[in-house]
Design a protein that fits this description.
Distance between the termini: 42 Å
Strand content: 5-15%
Shape: elongated
Strand order of the largest sheet: 1-2
Number of strands: 2
Order of helices and strands: HEEHHHH
Largest sheet: 2 strands, antiparallel
Length: 109
């Protein structure tokens, strides 16, 4: 809202980013427009990249890379309509299955 009050409409392909890295900050001098990619690059340049474990290394992971690849293979063979049953079988959410089969998470090794 602060950006729009001081600078006008935010273009559809842009996000409002913070120079000060305080997400709750509304000071227009601390705000700039960027793409998700430029925002990620800014975060990395400032050393704010999270180095948390992902995949099997994450303590709360319910799956392994092997199970994710099984899910992907079974989905491809059976096509649609299998998401709910895979979610029940692997004890994860339907969205977790969807993200696996679309390649958004558990990327193929």
């Amino acid at each position: 809202m602060s950006w729009e009050i001081h600078h006008g409409k935010i273009p559809d392909d842009k996000h409002v980013c913070h120079k000060c890295d305080v997400r709750s900050c509304v000071n227009p001098a601390h705000l700039f427009l960027g793409t998700p990619a430029s925002n990620t690059a800014d975060r990395k340049a400032k050393g704010r990249t999270l180095n948390h474990p992902i995949g099997e290394a994450h303590a709360l992971s319910k799956l392994t890379q092997q199970k994710a690849e099984e899910i992907r293979a079974r989905y491809i063979i059976s096509k649609h309509g299998l998401v709910s049953s895979l979610a029940r079988e692997y004890k994860v959410s339907r969205s977790a299955i969807y993200h696996i089969v679309k390649g958004l998470t558990w990327k193929q090794s």
